[in-house]
Design brief:
heterodimer; A: 105 residues; Histone, subunit A; B: alpha/beta; 6-stranded mixed sheet
Chain lengths: 105, 481
């Protein structure tokens, strides 16, 4: 599959990336080459294969061979770092992060 | 030339107990080494002497009181700059986090310090751990201490170079597709990727969450095993960490390897493998046979699809994980007239080319109309690769391969061609996708003196077995075969 300029611009828009005009062509060529390589995945017959959606090893019966992730009790724990987190923000007005106006006038 | 001594966990301990040095003096000595050597290596991005000396004084006070020494008492440690350290700048090798100081410590950091380790500073790495040469750092490349015109490998290049160059006794790196094992091989030191879920990732700044792992670099297997016992284990702050008991790895490693079945997959010895690397790894396998291991030829037929699978899965996860860098809560913000403009300008200015490339690749693979062909298919092939491993471990106790197809390449040699760079991870990404543990151990050098790495994979949570083989190999002289 050939990647077009428009594909690159569409993906950049989805990912909130701004690209300089010369970058568009560079990325187009590189993504094209990488995706052509990735195309080799089409060689395999995966019609009866389940996607690997979780990382805990499973035995043949499908039961977790290692450990099942344990859920902790649903209790509220105070966040002790809230002030330190806000101190890292580029623009904070405690207890908020401030951003450019989102709602149109 | 009065060479700086190579310190180990054991020799530090011994020196403290016999009062030959103090933890403070040792930290001072390592900072002096860093001052001398770091300008050319560029292994460290930040130092935290205040924190280090406070911890060293705590160790020295304990020694003075005759208290039993903690397992890593006074041991100088370096930490990859993707692992959060409270109050110490953590950049991920990126401009977007140039001024970011984490408000808390990663669990691995907490555990190291609780065990007495002295954290010297943060090490350079490829931006957000994306790279195989450390050339994608926004703060300049790291040089390989063994050969200064060569890369140290990546993405944990700074952590590998720090230990190999004698600027830290042990270090932590992270491995997503080979980022601990490959630099370990290039710099000639042991380097461990633990099983997925073995070590808590709380405080690790995420790249690809189904792959990322934290693991140690050391100069010997005993040190690596000691660190593993300390950082491994369940953590209530990381739901992906396994609630399994942690063995005393250092006690396990001396067990005999006689009768262990070592699998040698022919798929890892085909075209593209440097002949010198091939010869040394084969000599390494022969040495293990001499030690009583039984060699079992294996076929792992989906090996050839691992890089393609990895670069779909890892980039898809990265595109999602890195969405958080938007200029709102932390890191760089570039002002814009609208929220969208602020996002775009911040990300344009803050991210380097490889990170942008991977975000776009991952976004493409997940986007409407392409999801089935790329992401879903890659997840299915990932199952096949994992099955190659589970089938193999029905017949063998460990799998032996080269760590990387070539020794360390020259700085700049592969930067123009991203795909060629990706292929440096061809033998490591398989284990990353399958979730199994792997170690790279030194396995001699090329005629030009460049280190070669041999990789040992174990089954899930089989680190003890892997370390045992690595230790037997080390003891038999395999590191300089």
């Amino acid at each position: 599959m050939k990647i077009s300029r428009e594909d690159v611009l569409r993906v950049a828009q989805l990912a909130h990336l701004e690209l300089a005009p010369d970058e568009v062509e560079t990325y187009r060529g590189q993504l094209d080459e990488i995706l052509a390589y990735i195309g080799k995945l089409q060689e395999l017959d995966v019609s009866n294969v389940e996607p690997m959606t979780q990382m805990q090893p499973r035995n043949a019966a499908g039961a977790s061979a290692g450990s099942e992730p344990e859920l902790r009790d649903d209790v509220i724990v105070p966040c002790k770092v809230a002030d330190a987190v806000l101190a890292e923000a580029p623009d904070a007005a405690k207890p908020f992060f401030r951003v450019p106006k989102v709602i149109e006038r | 030339m009065s060479a700086s001594p190579t310190w180990t966990v054991a020799s530090v301990r011994n020196a403290l107990l016999t009062k030959k040095t103090s933890a403070r003096e040792l930290a001072k000595d390592f900072y002096a080494r860093i001052e001398r050597r770091n300008p050319e290596l560029n292994a460290f991005l930040a130092l935290c002497p205040e924190r280090a000396y406070t911890q060293a004084d705590r160790v020295d006070a304990a020694v003075a009181k005759g208290r039993p020494l903690l397992p890593l008492a006074g041991v100088p440690v370096a930490i990859k700059d993707v692992i959060s350290t409270q109050g110490v700048r953590t950049t991920c090798g990126s401009k977007i986090l140039e001024n970011y100081t984490p408000p808390y410590d990663a669990t691995a950091i907490e555990r190291l310090e609780k065990a007495g380790a002295v954290i010297l500073g943060k090490t350079n790495c490829d931006e957000f751990a994306m790279g195989s040469s450390n050339e994608n750092s926004a703060y300049g490349p790291v040089r390989n201490p063994v050969a200064l015109d060569r890369v140290p490998g990546g993405s944990s290049g700074g952590s590998a170079a720090a230990v190999a160059g004698g600027l830290a006794v042990i270090s932590l790196g992270t491995d997503t597709g080979g980022s601990i094992r490959q630099p370990g091989a290039y710099c000639g030191i042991p380097a461990i990727m633990p099983t997925y879920g073995r070590v808590s990732r709380y405080g690790l700044i995420a790249f690809a969450s189904s792959l990322d792992r934290i693991g140690p670099f050391a100069t010997n297997i005993s040190d690596a095993a000691t660190v593993m016992s300390i950082i491994a284990g369940h953590d209530s702050n990381d739901s992906t960490s396994a609630a399994l008991a942690v063995p005393d790895y250092a006690a396990e490693i001396e067990k005999p390897v006689t009768g262990l079945r070592i699998g040698v997959p022919e798929d890892y010895f085909g075209s593209g493998l440097d002949p010198e690397v091939k010869a040394k790894v084969q000599a390494g396998i022969a040495l293990l046979e001499k030690l009583g291991c039984k060699r079992v030829p294996l076929k792992m037929p989906h090996t050839d699809y691992a890089i393609a699978t990895y670069y779909v899965v890892a980039t898809a996860e990265a595109s999602s994980n890195l969405a958080r860098y938007d200029g709102v809560r932390f890191g760089l913000r570039v002002q814009g007239n609208t929220l969208m403009e602020m996002y775009r300008k911040t990300r344009e200015r803050g991210f380097g080319p490889e990170v942008k490339r991977r975000i776009m690749l991952g976004t493409y693979a997940l986007s409407s109309g392409y999801y089935d062909a790329y992401y879903l298919r890659a997840q299915k092939v990932r199952s096949l690769i994992a099955r190659d491993f589970s089938n193999a471990f029905e017949q063998v106790d460990a799998i032996i391969t080269p760590t990387a197809p070539t020794p360390a390449f020259k700085l700049g040699e592969k930067t123009a061609d991203p795909l060629e760079m990706y292929l440096a991870d061809i033998y490591t990404v398989t284990g990353s996708l399958a979730g199994v543990p792997g170690i790279s151990v030194p396995c001699g050098k090329t005629a030009a003196g460049l280190p070669i790495g041999m990789q040992i994979f174990g089954s899930h949570f089989g680190e003890a077995r892997v370390l045992q083989l690595a230790r037997a190999f080390e003891k038999a002289g395999g590191f300089s075969i």
